[in-house]
C-alpha cells in the first residue's frame, strides 16, 4: 500500500478535469471600470433608464468602499481596472430552440456531463444556460409559461416584466450592501429570473449552468427568484470554469424572496477552476446570496456543494421576517492544494416562531484552508425562535487548516439557539476496516467522505446528488493512507 | 374533598375536556380509564395547573377552595400531588436537596417551622423503606439517568414524603415491567388511608389488579361516559373500548 | 495629570513622566517605553475592532480619569466593612489596595520557599526581568500595553521547586479612589518545577461616587509539573469598570485550573484570559460563571493556544443573564501545525432570564493539525418550562424553583470548585442575586 504522503501528493498533483476552453467568437467590453463601462453595458443590453440609474448608484457606492479585512485569508491583489466587464458570445440571431445553439457550446456541456438534450429527455429539468454572462438557451419555457411561471434571463425579464424586476431588484441585497455586491449592481451582465405565481408549485426543477469562458472577464451575473404566496420552486445552479493561469473574479448576486407560505429551495454545485497545485490561477468566487422570508410561514433553503474556486468567499443568508418562517443552510465545502474557503451563512430571526437549521461539513486537504463562518442573530421580537447549528470539519493531511467561527447574537429570552462543532481527521481505523474488506484506500476515502457529507447531499435533488457525489469522489481521490 | 363541575378545558384552541363531573371523597380510590386521546392526562394536567391548559368553563373545588385560582405550587401545598407520566430529569439538582426544599416550602405555607435536618433524614429513611426506594438514588441528580422504573418509584417515594391529601397517578404503570409494577403498586397500597384519596389514571386494567379501585370512570372524548366499580375495568379489559364508543355515538344520534 | 483632561487627550501626548509610575527603579523603563509605543501603534479599540465588536469600550472611557494612582490606604477597621469575606474559608490573606500590598493588613505565610512581595520590591528579581511583558498574547492587546507602560505596582509571587502551602492564599483586591481614576495593577506569579498553589482572588471597590476603572494584568508562569488552582471572584460596586488580563504560560506536565466568577454589579467587566501551552502533556481547565444583573456588561474573551503536541484543554463557561444585562463570550482554541494529539473542548451555555437581557457569543476553532479531537458548543435558552412546572407541582414556589434551577445550571462549574467554603459561598450568592432579580 502507498503511504499517506504519496497519496496526498497525488491529490495535490491531480489535474482539473473540467479545464478546457471553448472557441467561440466573443463580444467583449473594453478593459477598465468607469461610468462609460457601465453605460456601455447598459446600452449593449438596451436597458431602460431606471436600470442604468440603479447601476450608477451601485457604482457610486462601490467607489466609496474598501475591501474588507475580517476574512480568514489574505486578500489577493485585485485590480478591478484590469478586468473586462462584459463578454457575450456573438450571436447572429435570436435562438428559438436548442438546435440553434452553437454546437461547440453544446459540446462543452457534453464534456461537463450535462448535455441539455439528455437532461431534457431524462430528467425533465428546465435549464437556463449562462455562458459568460448572457443567457443563451432556455428550455421548457413554454411548459412553464402555461402555469404562469416566468423563467428567463435577467435581461429578458427587464424587457418583458419590468414591473416585477423594479419591485424586487435590490430589495434583499441592496446596491450598497458590500463592495462586491456594489460592483455587481454596477456592472452585472445577465443572470436568471424566476417568478412563481400564487399557489403554483413548479412541476420541475429549474436549473442554470454557469460557466466562465473568456479570459480576463469577471462574471457578474445576478439572479432574482420570487415565490409568491403558497408558491414553491426548487432551483439548481451548477458552476464550472475552464483552466486559466490568471485569476478570474466571480462576483454574483442572488436574491430570493418568499411571500406568505412560499418556499424556495436553492441548490448549488460549484466546481469553478481551483487553480493549480501551487495556487496559481483559479476563480475568486466572491458571491452575495441572500433570501428573505418576507411572508408568514415561508421557507428558504440553501444547499451548496463547493469543491472549486481558488477562493470561495460567501455566506448564503436568510432573513426570517415573516412569523413562523423557516431558513435552512446545508453546505459541503472541500478544499485541497492551496484552495481557500471562507463560507457559511447568516440567519436573521426577526419574526415570531422562526426556525433555522445549519448543517456545515468542511473537508480540508493539501495546504488548503477551510473556514466556516456563520451568524445567527435573534432579534427582540423573535419570540420562540429556534436555531440548531452543526459544523463538522474533517482534516486530511497535516498541512491544512479547518476553522469554525460562529457568531451568535440573541436578544430574546424565549429563543433557543444551539451550536455544535467538531474537528477530527479521517479515521484510520475506518480506512483500515474498508481495506480489510478489499476496498482500496482511494475508494475508501471517497466512501467515508460521502458518508460524512450525506446529510447535506441528501438535500440535493436526485440528479444533482449523483453529480455532487461523483465530484466529491473525484476531488478527493486517494487523499489518505 | 374534590368536586369537579362541568369542567371544560382547551389547549392551543383545541377543546380537550368537554364537561367533566366528578366527586372524590376521603379514603376513596378512583380509577380513570379510557382510550388514547380521551383526555385522561389532560385532566391531571388541569388539576395540577399546567399553564398551557385554559379552563373555559366549570369549576373545581378542593377542600372548600377554588382550585383553579391557585398557582401550581399552592395547589401542591394545599395537598394535591401529581405523579407524572414522564417525570423530568433535572441535572444539577440533587434529589435530596429538592425534596427538602419542597417539604419546607409546604411546611412554611402551613405556618410550620422548617424540618430539622435529623428529622428529615429519619423521615427519608422511613419512607424509602416503606416504598422500597433505592437509597443510592437519593444523592443523585433528580431523575437524571434513572431507568423508567426508577423514575416511577421516585414519584411514589415523593408521594410518601410530601404526604398529600389527593394523589393523582398519571399512567404510573406505563413503561413498567410486571415486577416494577408490583413494587410501585405495593408502595401506593401502603400509603392508602382513610383521610387520603387517590385518582389513578391508566389505560390498562393490569394496574387495577394490584391497586383495587372503589370507582372506575371511563373517559371518552373529554367526558366521563360511564362510571362503575372494579367490574367495569374487567369488562373493558375483555371487550375493549369500542362498544362504549358505539354506545356514546348511539346516544348522541338519538 | 489633572482630571479635567479626558483620557484620550492624555494618552495621545506620549509616555507620561515617572511621577505617574512612582517606581524609582529604571530597570524596566525601556520595556515600559516599548510597551507605550506598542499601545500607540495599536490604538484604542472600537466596535470595528474584531476583538471588541460586542463591547463598545469607548463608551466606558468617555469620562475623564486620573492616571495618577493614589495610594488609597485603608485601616483595619475599614477592611472589616469590605465585603470580601468568604465564611468558613481558612486561608492566608494578601490585601492589596489599588494594587499595593498592605503587609500590615495581610496574613501571609511564614517565609520559606514561597515569596510574596510587592512587584516593585522584586524589580531586580531575575524572574521579573525574564517574564515582564513577554507573553505573546499580550502583545496585541492595547490595554495590556498601556498597563505595561504605566502600571503602579502589584503582587509578585514566586513558589520555589516543589513548594506548596497548607491552605489557600486569598488575595483581596480593594480599589478606592476619591476622584475618577484609571488604576493599573500588575501581578506576576511564577511557580517553579513541581510547585503547587491554591489562590482565591476577590475584587471589590469602595467608591460611592468616583468611578474606578481598573485595567489589570496578571502574568502566570507554570514551570514543569507545577499546578495552580486559581479562583477569581469579581464582584464590585456598580460604578466600577474592569479590564482584566490573565495570561498563563504552561510548561510540560503542568496543570492549570482557572475559575472565573463574575457577579454583580460592576457595569463593565472584560476578561482576557489566555493560556499558551508551550510544553507537552499539560492539562488546562477553564471554568467560568457569569451572573449579571441590572445594566451589567460582562465580556469573557478566552484563548487557548496549543503550540505543542499532547495537551488537553477543557473549557466550560456558563452565563446567567438577568435584568438588562448583556453577556459576551469569545473563546478561541488555536491548534498549531505541530500540536498533534491535542484534545481541546469548549462549551458556552447561557440562560437568558429576562426579556431585556442579551448574549453574543463567538466560540472559535482554528485548527492546523489533523490528528486532534476538538469541539465546541454553544447554547442559549430559558428554563425548561417542564422542569419549572415539575418543581412547582411539588409545592416549590416560583422563586425558589428558579433559584434551584439556576444553581443546577451552574452546578457543572461550582461542582469543580475544590474548596467547600467557596462552593457554599457561590451557591448563596446565586440564590441572593436570582431571587433579587425575580423580585425586582
Which two chains share the most extensive interface? A-C, 35 and 35 residues
Q: Structural class of the helices, strands and pairings of chain A?
A: alpha/beta
Can you tell me the overall shape of chain A? globular
Q: Estimate nothing, just give the exact number of structural domains of chain B.
A: 1
What is the CATH level 1 assignment of chain B? Answer: Alpha Beta
Distance between the termini of chain A: 8 Å
Structural commentary:
The complex is a heterotrimer of chains A (481), B (254) and C (440). Chain A is of the alpha/beta class. Chain A is built from 13 helices and 24 strands. Chain A has a ten-stranded mixed beta sheet. A six-stranded parallel beta barrel of chain A has the order 13-15-18-21-19-16. A two-stranded antiparallel ribbon of chain A has the order 1-2. Chain B has one domain (2-253): P-loop containing nucleotide triphosphate hydrolases (Rossmann fold), CATH 3.40.50.300. Helices cover 38% and strands 28% of the residues of chain B. With 440 residues, chain C is of the alpha/beta class. Chain C has two domains: 7-279, no CATH class; 385-440, no CATH class. Chain C contains nine helices and 20 strands. In chain C, a hairpin with a 2-residue loop joins strand 1 (92-97) and strand 2. In chain C, helix 7 (385-393) crosses helix 8. Mean pLDDT of chain C is 90; it is low at 1-5. Chain A binds chain C through residues 70, 72, 380, 393, 395-425, and chain C through 50, 54, 337, 340, 350, 352-355, 357-382.
